[in-house]
């Protein structure tokens, strides 16, 4: 019995050591994933949205496939926002918002414009989004305005 234990204990220690060595590599991979979307993907996302905008402006009919692509692009963008918001997402959200607005899907458009105001108000798309929301009759409150109201209450 002691001989078995004398073999098992060092073997278990070696396995633990190997697993411990593997964990930092996995953590590094996860850190890379949280870094955000590579620039090539952002460029491709922008190109895909541009193609949908072009199709809309050319008055071509949107196919169910186009609608599926639009939803897919929006979900991908939203997923990246959860990981790491980047200012390069602002024009993409703005274009998607315009597509939704021109298609009469105001609720989805409002979400896109509001996302810009909440996350990218310092970009050129912040004032544009605020103006469009005002034209749509939506009361716009920036996060900084909400903080000022809270300060006044206290």
Topology summary:
Layout: H1 2-33, H2 39-57, H3 64-83, H4 90-102, H5 106-120, H6 125-135, H7 143-153
Written overview of the protein:
This protein is an all-alpha fold. It folds into two domains: 1-33; 39-153. The chain has seven helices and no strands. It is elongated.
Question: Summarize this, please?
Answer:
The protein has helices at 2-33, 39-57, 64-83, 90-102, 106-120, 125-135, 143-153. It has 154 residues and is mostly helical. The chain has two domains: 1-33; 39-153.
User: Overall pLDDT, averaged?
Assistant: 81
Number of helices: 7
- List segments where confidence is low: pLDDT < 50 over at least 5 consecutive residues: 25-33
Determine the fraction of residues in helical runs and give it as a percent range: over 70%
- How many domain regions? 2
Keywords:
79% helix; mainly alpha; 7 helices; 2 domains; elongated; 154 residues
